[in-house]
């Protein structure tokens, strides 16, 4: 009987350990009610869309820092605070710029838009080259000339997210860059039907200019030439090769702050506490822009308040039940401006960068069908740690059991989404890193990305998945290793 009782106790202990592995102890602290309350607050109109480099982003960052404090996270930023400020450089077209064609003043952003900035004084005839799709067949000498082309969608995939934001860039990449490489001093693009429909959104992006941190490619624009867009009705004035441009294009450059919000929980293991699991999100959205359905606030509820509030929920879970390794919660600033906060952090880490064992980044985790999801970095060449991928797959199988979309992580996918979120700077350093997502939707980067349209049961499942994955990493006997052959395609 005694042996039978001992065997029964061993069975109970084994069963208890299995249950603990399948359901980590803080799981019950991730509550749909908390997620909803926090998201409605962060995606509220009070923060005016949290545009990077504005007081609105800073106000939202202070709100998040206060949430960190209330949860009990230790300050992980500069000078004993939760904040790591960094400098943003912005270039944009000055209101002093003047552009005339045939001695007629053109109104910036209405009559003409500057798609690529450069300080330039242009006094020259305009050489009309015709439709962009045909110019490759011509033997053209465009060196030191101002040239005009008609936009063409031939060879451009328009079946992408944000087509009104991205079409002009695609035209420039395919048809304008070859002319710049041949030495053209300026290029005018005449809008086609697609570009006309995209004008308002494209012009709004052009108007905002470019942003970067110190050392970035967009800090200076002295090596570029101006690229201009005109409406389709400009063709009449340009096609006879009698038009003349007189322009003084002035680029203003100035700086202002953005910020990373950083909190930490110390690990319990004497040795492993010096290693860090890093949870990653971003707080900025797109501010006040063109109105949709009479609303001009781009609330950024899914992108990316959904991840920020999931990180708060995960922080509550780890705070009550610390892991062996330490946990960093880093909400990066200015992600929408080109991953600027994460790029800054990997250059100025607040813990030794070699001690960061894994990055679990999230981007848009609160929409679409409750049983579907994905993570970027699960297949080569984006997979940089097979061990980490296996951990995340196991966490999914133990809990949410999402049907995982694998298409977005493919090199051939038109979105190229792996390269558009904050895990990327860490992955480039060889740190095991992935990005969780519930994938794109039609409200992406519009005012309809609001708190009312979030699928809160779905958000809860995604937050659970991130916690289950993190619990496994933070308590594993050894850190996930980076695959020896990891090399991104670009």
Offer a concise description of the structure.
31% of the residues lie in helices and 23% in strands.
What does this structure look like?
By secondary structure, the protein is an alpha/beta fold. It has helices at residues 2-22, 32-42, 55-71, 163-181, 193-208, 235-238, 301-320, 340-347, 386-398, 424-428, 456-475; strands at residues 74-75, 83-93, 98-101, 104-105, 112-116, 120-131, 146-150, 186-190, 210-212, 227-230, 244-249, 251-265, 276-282, 288-292, 295-297, 326-332, 356-362, 372-376, 403-404, 433-437. The strands form 3 sheets. Strands 1, 2, 9, 12, 13, 16, 17, 18, 19 and 20 form a 10-stranded mixed sheet that branches. An 8-stranded mixed sheet has the order 4-3-11-6-7-8-10-5. The radius of gyration is 26 Å and the shape is elongated. The model is unreliable at 1-20 (pLDDT under 50).
């Amino acid at each position: 009987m005694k042996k039978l009782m001992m065997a029964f106790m061993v069975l109970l202990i084994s069963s208890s350990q299995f249950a603990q592995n399948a359901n980590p102890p803080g799981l019950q602290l991730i509550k749909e009610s908390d997620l909803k309350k926090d998201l409605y607050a962060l995606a509220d109109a009070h923060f005016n869309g949290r545009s990077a480099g504005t007081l609105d982003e800073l106000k939202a960052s202070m709100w998040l820092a206060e949430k960190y404090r209330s949860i009990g996270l230790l300050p992980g930023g500069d000078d004993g605070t939760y904040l790591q400020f960094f400098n943003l450089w912005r270039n944009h077209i000055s209101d002093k710029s003047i552009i005339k064609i045939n001695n007629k003043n053109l109104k910036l952003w209405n009559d003409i838009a500057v798609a690529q900035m450069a300080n330039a004084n242009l006094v020259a005839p305009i050489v009309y080259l015709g439709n962009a799709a045909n110019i490759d067949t011509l033997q053209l000498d465009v060196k030191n000339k101002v040239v005009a082309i008609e936009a063409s969608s031939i060879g451009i995939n328009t079946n992408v997210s944000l087509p009104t934001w991205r079409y002009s860039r695609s035209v420039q990449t395919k048809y304008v860059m070859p002319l710049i490489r041949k030495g053209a001093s300026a290029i005018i693009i005449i809008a086609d039907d697609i570009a006309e429909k995209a004008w308002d959104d494209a012009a709004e992006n052009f108007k905002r200019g470019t942003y970067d941190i110190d050392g970035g490619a967009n800090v200076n624009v002295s090596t570029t030439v101006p690229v201009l867009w005109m409406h389709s009705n400009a063709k009449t004035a340009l096609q006879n090769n009698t038009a003349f441009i007189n322009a003084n294009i002035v680029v203003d450059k100035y700086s202002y702050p953005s910020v990373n919000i950083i909190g930490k929980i110390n690990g319990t293991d004497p040795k492993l506490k010096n290693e860090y699991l890093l949870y990653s999100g971003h707080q900025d959205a797109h501010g006040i822009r063109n109105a949709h359905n009479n609303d001009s606030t781009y609330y950024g509820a899914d992108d990316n308040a959904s991840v920020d509030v999931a990180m708060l929920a995960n922080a509550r879970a780890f705070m009550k039940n610390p892991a062996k390794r330490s946990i960093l919660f880093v909400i990066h600033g200015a992600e929408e401006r080109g991953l600027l906060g994460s790029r800054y952090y990997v250059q100025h880490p607040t813990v030794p960068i070699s001690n960061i064992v894994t990055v679990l980044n999230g981007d848009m985790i609160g929409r679409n069908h409750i049983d579907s999801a994905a993570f970027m970095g699960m297949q080569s060449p984006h997979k940089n740690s097979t061990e980490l991928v296996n951990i995340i797959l196991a966490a999914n199988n133990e809990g949410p059991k999402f049907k995982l979309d694998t298409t977005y992580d493919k090199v051939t996918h038109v979105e190229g989404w792996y390269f558009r979120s904050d895990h990327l700077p860490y992955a480039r350093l060889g740190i095991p890193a992935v990005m969780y997502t519930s994938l794109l939707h039609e409200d992406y980067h519009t005012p309809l990305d609001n708190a009312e349209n979030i699928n809160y049961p779905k958000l809860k499942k995604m937050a659970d998945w991130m916690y289950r994955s993190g619990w496994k990493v933070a308590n594993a006997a050894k850190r996930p290793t980076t695959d020896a052959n990891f090399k991104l395609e670009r």
